[in-house]
Amino acid sequence: MRMGMRLLLGYFLIVAVAGWFVFSIFVQEVKPGVRRAMEGTLIDTATLLAELGKEDLLSGNAQEGRLAKAFTDLHYQPINASISGINKVRNEYHVYMTDAQGKVVFDSAGQAVGKDYSRWNDVWLTLRGKYGARSTLSDPDDADSTVMYVAAPVINNGKIIGVLSVGKANNTMTPVIKRSERRILWAGGALLGIALLIGGVMVWWINHSIGKLVRYADSVTLEQPVPLPDLGSSELRKLATALESMRVKLEGKKYIEHYVHALTHELKSPLAAIRGAAEILQENPAPEVAARFTGNILTQNARMQALVEKLLLQAKVESRLEVPLTAVSVNALFVALRETRGIQIARKGIELQCNETDLLVTGETELLEEALGNLLDNAIDFTPAGGVISLTAHAQDAQVFIRVTDSGSGIPDYALDRLFERFYSLARENGHKSSGLGLAFVREVARLHRGSIRLINLSPTGAEATLTLHRHFT
């Protein structure tokens, strides 16, 4: 099972257990809570009716008193109330009153007058000055037919002369209890769904961030490093930086060995040419011959110096993890390239087309100018006299695509996968090869700018290099 699914499952189980625990308590407390509230109302009602029924009890004919008349009138008076969607259409109280011996002298239902209720808890406790209440099944065969009775003493001159008891069936509160339970369960289900959604988003973000790190690690393994991913988290960012630092350190020894080997190989040819020229000069040749071989020595020396400088620049770029980024004008880069390569372009009779643009990119000016210069140098080398090279830029969303297009012969198929390797170079039209570091340098600059570089063949002829950078918004 993937780590993300494990995280989601663990998170969901924690939320589900916590939700079940909390909501089970709520549901378990709904019924007792409603009944406690009902009991409090019954106490208040019994106390009030006890005071009203005192005169009826003293008169000796409570069944014909004011309390009895009020209940009789109440039976004929309809009730039409809607309480939060619950309709109430009748009085649900059952009231009876006993004398000091517990004998029923008034019953709102008219069924218990004359009966001895002295042993019922509500009457028995109240006659002794205690709080009296009881629950009784109105139907012995129905466990849900309980009726709660709460009693209050009828007091005259400080003496208990009777008991007034008010009862209400518990099932009258069932709609309220069921509705509350439904609402709690719906709220619980919604909360669980929201928690699951949040957990899913969180796990997706973690998987997405880890996936970026995996792709980055895979690219390093394939020796095709991509820009260090922006993970949006300080902890994951530190991990990515640590991975990049580890990559640089692990590649250090192999990198140096490769460079030394390549540098030795590249220096063999100019050193051999210098040695041959020096040996001829030792023989004191004619002045015109000496001048020619002296020129050869200077040419090969310049070649070695250029190679060493490019190696140092490449090593400097590849050892950097980040560069200071500012707003860079693409048009200014094009102008600089036209000025620095103007002589080469004019010498070959090539037409350079640059589009005017006000686009800004986020980057480091010198590195971008050097990288685009390498792309333009390649285009000049492979474009025949009279050909056309174009520099264009356009934006799409938050990215800027800078393209260097030539009308040369294109890139051989066998070389497409190796163009960005260090020291890999194709022969120019004059038979010479470059250092093979130009495109490797461009790739490293793209990586430092969190961009990309792509080279493709055009139809029918020519090639196109696209450097993708981040747009700078003012």
UniProtKB/TrEMBL annotation:
Name of the protein: histidine kinase
Transmembrane residue ranges: 184-206
Domain Histidine kinase: 262-473
Reactions listed under catalytic activity: ATP + protein L-histidine = ADP + protein N-phospho-L-histidine
A Pfam entry, by short name: sCache_3_2
Membrane association type: Multi-pass membrane protein
Keywords, ordered alphabetically: Cell membrane, Kinase, Membrane, Phosphoprotein, Transferase, Transmembrane, Transmembrane helix, Two-component regulatory system
